[in-house]
C-alpha cells in the first residue's frame, strides 16, 4: 500500500529516462504490491516488444500519477520515439496513457522523417499516428514536408553530355579584311 501511494506522485531527477507506456509498468507494480499472496518473478509477454516501442523522455522534472495514468515532463523536454521516427522538443509534455496521446506545449518542435512541425501546442494521437498543431494566440503553425517529385526522378530524366567546345553560330556579317598599320 505504501508503494502504491508513492507511485501516485513521483518526481524524477534531471536526465532520467522514462520508458513508456507507464500504465503497464504502474499496473504491474501496483498489482504485485496490492496482492496479499507472496510475489514471485513473472515474465510479461508485452515486455519483450516494449524495447522496440520505447519512447525516451528527458526533462528537468518528471511526475507520474498512477491514479490518472498521466506522466508530465517539464523544462527542456526532449522526446525520442524511434519506432515512429519521431524527435521532439518542448517546454512541457504530458503523456495520457489511457487515451494514448501526447500533448506537447511551449515552443514545440517535432521532426519525423525530415518533416517538421512548429507550434505552441502539438498533440500526437499515437494509435492514429496523427499530429494536431495549434499556434500561439494570433500566430500560425509552421510545417515543412518533404514531397517527392515523381516527374524529376532520375529514371525519366535525359541528361545530355557536356560539350566543352560549344557550337558557334554563323556570323551575321562577313569578316572584314585585316588592317595594316
From the structure above, extract its key features.
181 residues; mainly beta; Organic solvent tolerance-like N-terminal domain-containing protein; OstA-like_N
What does this entry look like structurally?
It is built from three helices and ten strands, in the order H-E-E-H-H-E-E-E-E-E-E-E-E. Residues 1-48 have low confidence and may be disordered. The protein is elongated, with a radius of gyration of 29 Å. The N and C termini lie far apart (114 Å). It is 14% helix and 37% strand. Strands 1, 2, 3, 4, 5, 6, 7, 8, 9 and 10 form a ten-stranded antiparallel sheet that branches. It has a domain at 52-144. It has 181 residues and is mainly beta.
List the helices and strands and how they pair.
Elements: H1 2-8, E1 10-12, E2 18-19, H2 22-34, H3 45-50, E3 56-58, E4 61-65, E5 70-81, E6 86-96, E7 101-112, E8 115-125, E9 130-134, E10 142-144
Antiparallel strand pairs: 1-4, 2-3, 3-5, 4-5, 5-6, 6-7, 7-8, 8-9, 8-10
Pfam families: LptD_N
Protein name: Organic solvent tolerance-like N-terminal domain-containing protein
* Class derived from helix and strand content: mainly beta
β-sheet strand percentage: 35-45%
Q: List low-confidence stretches.
A: 1-48
Q: What is the residue-mean pLDDT, rounded to a whole number?
A: 73
What's the number of helices? Answer: 3
> Helicity range of the residues?
10-25%
Structural shape: elongated
Q: Care to count the β-strands?
A: 10
Largest sheet, described in full? 10 strands, antiparallel
Q: What's the N-to-C terminus distance?
A: 114 Å
Rg, rounded, reads 29 Å
| SSE arrangement, N to C | HEEHHEEEEEEEE
Organism: Planktothrix tepida PCC 9214
Pfam family, one: LptD_N
Protein name: Organic solvent tolerance-like N-terminal domain-containing protein
Region (Disordered): 152-181
Amino acid at each position: 500500500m505504501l508503494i502504491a501511494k508513492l507511485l501516485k506522485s513521483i518526481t524524477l531527477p534531471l536526465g532520467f529516462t522514462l520508458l513508456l507506456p507507464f500504465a503497464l509498468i504502474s499496473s504491474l507494480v501496483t498489482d504485485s504490491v496490492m496482492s496479499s499472496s507472496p510475489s514471485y518473478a513473472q515474465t510479461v509477454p508485452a515486455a519483450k516488444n516494449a524495447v522496440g516501442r520505447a519512447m525516451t523522455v528527458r526533462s528537468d522534472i518528471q511526475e507520474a500519477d498512477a491514479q490518472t495514468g498521466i506522466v508530465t515532463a517539464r523544462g527542456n523536454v526532449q522526446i525520442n520515439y524511434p519506432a515512429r521516427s519521431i524527435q521532439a522538443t518542448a517546454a512541457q509534455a504530458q503523456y495520457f496513457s489511457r487515451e494514448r496521446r501526447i500533448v506537447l506545449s511551449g515552443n514545440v518542435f517535432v521532426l519525423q522523417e525530415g518533416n517538421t512541425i512548429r507550434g505552441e501546442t502539438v498533440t500526437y494521437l499515437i494509435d492514429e499516428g496523427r499530429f494536431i498543431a495549434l499556434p500561439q494566440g494570433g500566430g500560425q503553425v509552421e510545417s515543412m514536408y518533404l514531397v517527392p517529385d515523381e516527374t524529376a526522378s532520375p529514371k525519366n530524366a535525359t541528361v545530355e553530355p557536356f560539350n566543352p567546345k560549344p557550337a558557334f553560330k554563323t556570323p551575321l556579317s562577313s569578316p572584314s579584311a585585316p588592317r595594316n598599320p
